[in-house]
């Protein structure tokens, strides 16, 4: 089986073939998602919330992500595995090198960091040292206490322009993939056409190059909370495998997310 690489994902953007992504935290689910043909698996720091029951992602450590990355790597043959750099693990470029090294050694093929222009030197330094980087803009959950809650970002005209500028700056610094979370559909569409690297959305409308969901939301098992932009693919019953397949088929067809799962 041919492994998904960053060049394969880049080609998907060029050919208008949607990229499908899910979070995964263990070998068993990673294997199931991989068998259904998912392109990208993210070992997200959302694990602090969905696995550990915390209110935010701030308590997650590099050791936590490394442990789950090793598990996901063991379960994965084809998909491209990305590991989240947790809160404060990339506070300085120097910190980021040591911490990214642990995640790459655990089996990640790329690391993801949250934030804009202030990260440009860190991105360039990581890439120069052989660590591919995914950016993350919009609602960046590690900054939830700065935002004052999990809120849609980029609604005002100046904030929207700022986000586009930061995305371009990160691309110039060397990111090879961008996650865009909880921004209006129109802004996500503009970012997607402004960048030549693939943009993967969550709560960012259907016109990005791909979609990602937190697996627990996609299965409808997050204790008592379902974000507007997510969809419970188990709502009509069936097997977990069928749910994953329906999600992948919907993303390929451009049927997910609908307007009901997007922000104006
Ligand atoms: O941690 C996570 O699950 C994420 C996705 C929501 C993109 O960062
Ligand atoms: Na994350």
TrEMBL record:
Its EC number is 2.1.2.11. Binds 1 Mg(2+) ion per subunit. It catalyses: (6R)-5,10-methylene-5,6,7,8-tetrahydrofolate + 3-methyl-2-oxobutanoate + H2O = 2-dehydropantoate + (6S)-5,6,7,8-tetrahydrofolate. Mg(2+) binds at residues 45, 84, 114. Pathway: Cofactor biosynthesis; (R)-pantothenate biosynthesis; (R)-pantoate from 3-methyl-2-oxobutanoate: step 1/2. Keywords: Cytoplasm, Magnesium, Metal-binding, Pantothenate biosynthesis, Transferase. 3-methyl-2-oxobutanoate binds at residues 45-46, 84, 112. Coiled coil: none annotated. Its cofactor is Mg(2+). Its main location: cytoplasm. One of its GO terms (molecular function) is magnesium ion binding. The active site is at 181 (proton acceptor). It holds the Pfam family Pantoate_transf. GO terms for biological process: pantothenate biosynthetic process. Belongs to the PanB family. Homodecamer; pentamer of dimers. Catalyzes the reversible reaction in which hydroxymethyl group from 5,10-methylenetetrahydrofolate is transferred onto alpha-ketoisovalerate to form ketopantoate. This is 3-methyl-2-oxobutanoate hydroxymethyltransferase. It comes from Alteromonas halophila.
């Amino acid at each position: 089986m041919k492994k998904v690489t960053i060049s394969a994902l880049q080609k998907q953007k060029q050919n208008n073939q949607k990229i499908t992504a899910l979070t995964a935290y263990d070998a068993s689910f990673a294997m199931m998602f991989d068998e259904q043909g998912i392109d990208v698996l993210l070992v997200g720091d959302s694990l602090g919330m969905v696995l550990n029951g915390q209110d935010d992602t701030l308590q997650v450590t590099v050791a936590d992500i490394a442990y789950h990355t090793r598990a996901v790597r063991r379960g994965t043959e084809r998909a491209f595995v990305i590991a989240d750099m947790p809160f404060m693990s990339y506070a300085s470029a120097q910190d980021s090198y040591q911490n990214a090294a642990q995640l790459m050694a655990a089996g990640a093929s790329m690391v993801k960091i949250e934030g804009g222009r202030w990260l440009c030197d860190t991105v360039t330094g990581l890439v120069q040292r052989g660590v591919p980087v995914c950016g993350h803009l919009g609602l960046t959950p590690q900054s939830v206490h700065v935002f004052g809650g999990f809120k849609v970002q980029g609604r005002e005209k100046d904030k929207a322009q700022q986000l586009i500028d930061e995305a371009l700056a990160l691309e110039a610094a060397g990111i090879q993939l961008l996650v865009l979370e909880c921004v209006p559909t129109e802004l996500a569409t503009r970012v997607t056409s402004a960048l030549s690297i693939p943009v993967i959305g969550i709560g960012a409308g259907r016109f990005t190059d791909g979609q990602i969901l937190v697996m627990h939301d996609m299965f409808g098992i997050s204790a008592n909370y379902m974000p507007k932009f997510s969809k419970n693919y188990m709502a009509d019953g069936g097997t977990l495998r069928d749910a994953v397949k329906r999600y992948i088929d919907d993303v390929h067809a451009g049927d997910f997310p609908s307007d009901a799962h997007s922000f104006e």
